[in-house]
């Protein structure tokens, strides 16, 4: 009912619900009092197929009382639980409160398991088999929907198994990202760059920064336009982790590679959000998840 914007809808639902219940009781009462004139053989006089006659027997009492009991139960239920518009019920029950109670109970039961990792550094937890098994479950339940079950991400979702980090890959930064979330914004820059040809030239220059195939003539013309981007990405294009600005000199393309993808980014910009897990996960769970994510790119032989 929180989606309703006025009391009208609350009153409407309440009235419709109560009218339905009392209407059912009224219909039963009227039906029970109505008498149908019958013939001497206790039939209504209706005959089908030559010999199929409708008897004039009253409804069974158990059938009548079943409807009455159901209606009384419905009224009692609506009195103690939500169901009548904005009325919350005598018990004050809600789905959210029930969910929070069950989550808090589960977290309480899991505290002894996480207590073992409370004094461990993320680097130490990354080498602990039990901690990593728990971290993997946490990752699958809360992170894999975006970053993939193998943590390699996809278009628009960063790869967590390499050494490329928008905001830094230290345990502290990973912990901060998981806890508070991130909002990355690339503003539309076409107006600052110039004409469509200037944007295209700039796209070729950006491709040249990473050694990607490019038009060298257009890249040379686009170099002077890169000044509009340098405030975030740096004059050398290596990015700025304090701002979450990506490094343009490597071969990692979060939102797609090629001239068209870069032009679309310059023209339209992009906003990406990593949701905060604070409040959803406990501090102990975030610590273990931090160690797991850090360990994904800090294994022997992992890409740097």
Topology (SSEs and partners):
Blueprint: H1 7-33, E1 43-48, E2 52-55, H2 61-80, H3 95-115, H4 122-125, H5 129-142, H6 144-147, H7 171-180, E3 182-186, H8 190-193, H9 196-209, H10 216-222, H11 227-233, H12 259-268, E4 270-274, H13 283-296
Antiparallel strand pairs: 1-2, 3-4
Helix pairs in contact: 1-2, 5-13, 7-13, 9-10, 9-12
Would you count the extended β strands for me? 4
Summing up helix and strand content along with how strands pair, one would put the structural category as mainly alpha
What is the 3D form?
elongated
Describe the largest sheet.
2 strands, antiparallel
Distance between the termini: 51 Å
**The first-level CATH class name of the largest domain:** Mainly Alpha
Structure write-up:
With 304 residues, the chain is mainly alpha-helical. The chain has three domains: 7-80, no CATH class; 120-181 and 275-296, Cytochrome c-like domain (Cytochrome Bc1 Complex, Chain D, domain 2, Orthogonal Bundle), CATH 1.10.760.10; 185-273, Cytochrome Bc1 Complex, Chain D, domain 2. It is 51% helix and 7% strand. The protein contains 13 helices and four strands. The strands form two sheets. A two-stranded antiparallel ribbon has the order 1-2. Helix 1 packs antiparallel against helix 2, helix 7 (171-180) crosses helix 13 (283-296) and helix 9 (196-209) crosses helix 12 (259-268). The longest helix has 27 residues, at 7-33. It starts with 6 loop residues before the first helix and ends in an 8-residue tail after the last helix.
């Amino acid at each position: 009912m929180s989606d309703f914007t006025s009391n009208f809808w609350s009153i409407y639902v309440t009235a419709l619900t109560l009218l339905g219940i009392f209407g059912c009781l009224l219909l039963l009462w009227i039906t029970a009092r109505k008498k149908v004139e019958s013939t001497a053989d206790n039939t209504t006089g209706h005959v089908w197929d030559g010999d199929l006659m409708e008897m004039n027997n009253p409804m069974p009492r158990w059938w009548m009382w079943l409807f009455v009991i159901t209606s009384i139960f419905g009224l009692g239920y609506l009195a103690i639980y939500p169901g009548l518009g904005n009325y919350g019920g005598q018990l004050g029950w809600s789905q959210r409160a029930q969910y929070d109670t069950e989550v808090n109970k589960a977290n309480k039961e899991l505290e002894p398991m996480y207590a073992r990792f409370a004094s461990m550094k993320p680097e130490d937890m990354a080498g602990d088999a039990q901690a990593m098994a728990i971290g993997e479950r946490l990752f699958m339940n809360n992170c894999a929907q975006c970053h993939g079950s193998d943590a390699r991400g996809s278009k628009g979702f960063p790869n967590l198994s390499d050494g490329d980090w928008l905001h830094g890959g230290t345990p502290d930064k990973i912990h901060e990202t998981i806890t508070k979330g991130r909002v990355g914004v690339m503003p539309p820059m076409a107006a600052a760059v110039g004409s469509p040809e200037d944007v295209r030239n700039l796209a070729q220059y950006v491709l040249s920064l990473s050694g990607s195939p490019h038009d060298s003539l257009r890249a040379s013309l686009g170099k002077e336009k890169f000044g509009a981007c340098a405030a975030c990405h740096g004059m050398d294009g290596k990015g700025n982790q304090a701002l979450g600005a990506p490094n343009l000199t490597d071969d990692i393309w979060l939102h797609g590679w090629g001239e068209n993808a870069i032009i679309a980014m310059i023209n339209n910009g992009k906003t990406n959000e990593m949701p905060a897990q604070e409040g959803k996960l406990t501090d102990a769970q975030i610590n273990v998840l931090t160690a797991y994510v850090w360990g994904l790119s800090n294994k022997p032989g992992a890409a740097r």
